[in-house]
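The freezer alarm interrupted the setup, so I double-checked each line after restarting. Inputs confirmed:
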Amino acid sequence: MGIVVQKYGGSSVADATGVTRVAQRIVATKQAGHHVVVVVSAMGDTTDELLDLANDISPLPSGRELDMLLTAGERISMALLAMAIGNLGHEARSFTGSQAGVITDSAHGKAKIIDVTPGRIQAAIQDGAIAIVAGFQGVSQSSKDITTLGRGGSDTTAVALAAALQAEVCEIYTDVDGVFTADPRIVPSAQRIPAISYEEMLEMAASGAKILHLRCVEYARRHNMPIHVRSSFSHKTGTWVVDGSKVDSMEQAIISGVAHDRSEAKITVVGVPDKVGEAARIFEAVAAAQINIDMIVQNATVASTGLADISFTLPRADGQTAMAALAVLKDQVGYDTLLYDDGIGKVSLVGAGMRSHPGVSAGFFSALAQAGVNIDMISTSEIRISVIVAEDQVDDAVTAAHARFDLEARDVEAVVYGGSGR
Amino acid sequence: MGIVVQKYGGSSVADATGVTRVAQRIVATKQAGHHVVVVVSAMGDTTDELLDLANDISPLPSGRELDMLLTAGERISMALLAMAIGNLGHEARSFTGSQAGVITDSAHGKAKIIDVTPGRIQAAIQDGAIAIVAGFQGVSQSSKDITTLGRGGSDTTAVALAAALQAEVCEIYTDVDGVFTADPRIVPSAQRIPAISYEEMLEMAASGAKILHLRCVEYARRHNMPIHVRSSFSHKTGTWVVDGSKVDSMEQAIISGVAHDRSEAKITVVGVPDKVGEAARIFEAVAAAQINIDMIVQNATVASTGLADISFTLPRADGQTAMAALAVLKDQVGYDTLLYDDGIGKVSLVGAGMRSHPGVSAGFFSALAQAGVNIDMISTSEIRISVIVAEDQVDDAVTAAHARFDLEARDVEAVVYGGSGR
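Predicted 3D structure, all chains:
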């Protein structure tokens, strides 16, 4: 009897009705002949409410205590879910991250999973019970203190448990039918992607697709654990995230999808002297402020002045910190001025097929040109092309790219992974 | 450096203001040169709110899952309290019952403490930190599942931890100044009792004084751990609950206090045949329904009929169950009828001094007679006399007894235990 791990997010268990609906779906999976292990997030807005409580008490709460506080959220949802399953006549046992053997490092608020030792989970499912596990949390290997994995951590819990239990699949339930070729709010004709490789999904996640957390996809790729992203409100097949070799190559689209991201800002350092090490000093200062930068462009040095401009993008939330860190450098580096622009957006084309289809960049750029979208910066990976455009042109850019690569015409049923219709 | 264990109830930490106030008191104790271990209950109505959530999901939730759910309450309050202490510049570390080494049996919802192994608490206070421990909860020795001790269990957690840590004192903070000679809402001249023996406090608790849980006092007596019951809203000395030999015998009042209880009902089995074993069958039926009875009176058999009446008191909450259990016996026992009366109250006089002062009962009964209070049933222990009266005469009975034994005239300052004024 195979093991299915299912993860339900906070919106799926926001109230008693949602908890009961999820319980019914879990019981149906059990009755279909699977061992079922469920990972659940805190109900609805519980985590935000607990954060508000903490802020009422202390402006800078200790990470250890904040984790102790926030983990109360999943404790509530998992116990209620176990009760709801019990009410349907099936035995369910809930387990904290610690009880489930989710061992992490000691980085409170952003802990990494080091190991998973799910002995109690295995015992529960061997007893015929459904195991409910608190997402988002674990226990520090060294201090034995309770830790949290950071936002989106429940997906990672689910994949890590699925890998440790050698589950058949990790089902991630959400409020949409899967991963789409573009955000349907921008492109109404966007199609569900039936199957996508880990690599493409990583690029999609890094490019702003919020449906799966980057860490969770990385974990799944490392352990080759199939993820099935699907809706908790329907029984439709969703999107399978699997090893690239399993995505049917005959049906492999050149482009899997168009992602966009409005959360970045651009900083331009104007008039940087063209000396060895100046760029390094700039980026060392930003890195020292614990800021992750995304794209970098350096203009060609103007021969007459010997000066160049360096632009880079970063999370808007870090904009103020970065500007302050760079302002300190003004005299040392000798640049002219700093420009800050948060009116930008990033549009990315992701697809493993572009490895073997050279004309993709050209097609993307010409589609943007025809739509009147000006490209500010460009960066590429083997399976992704990203451009920075004006924020108010993001929708036009996404729509133009989606149309150019015929994404609305995908025959979604032809490429369902495995064909089981699960 | 001695250890002080402090317990704060849910009303003391009902909101951010309360949490901060309690944190200041804890820090003051630490600054006065003590190691401080704090036991805290769930904030305000949190436990009731969680119970409501459970009832929305399932009419009969599993005990294991209910305990998992309810323990989220202390998790929230203890983390917030630790943050508030951190905000005052002191290190605090919160611990669940399980982390604090509170080992229990597996009786979910009413677990008993088997052992306390407070290694992590000792390590925390040796590091100079204040340890915050979740009250009311523990971990089952056999199943490793989370358990709760039942209502009032936080007091027991505090005393058990204090005993295991060999603390100097266990301070139980509440919203009144200590244990009073009577309920001040009934007797405005009631006085705070400065010191009372474990035995008297047990009788007071069993007689309806709600300030300390019976189990907590029993635990303290068994381990000879002094309890100081005091208000979290003032710095006054409260009531010391200590070994009888330490209550100054020169100052020992004959009567410590008058307790009352309006939570009982009376059942009378009318016309029971005077045969060996009939009473046993009646009480076996009640015991089989898991009901604890309190007082029992059997009337003298009427010679002409050979029938007697048997009356007993029990918690009103169990009244319906008991009547149903007894109705089944009607034909077997052959009694005439069952009477149920919940318009009763119990008034108890408690005092170790009555051991050596024979006239107490007579004085109590004559005071009640002068106040026009009719006595329905009587039971006594070595240091307690209890009577059942009509519920609407409870206040008169308490007032009359209080006046008769001069309880309002106690010189409270003369008998402060230890005299330290703590």
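Quick read of the result. The radius of gyration of chain A is 23 Å.
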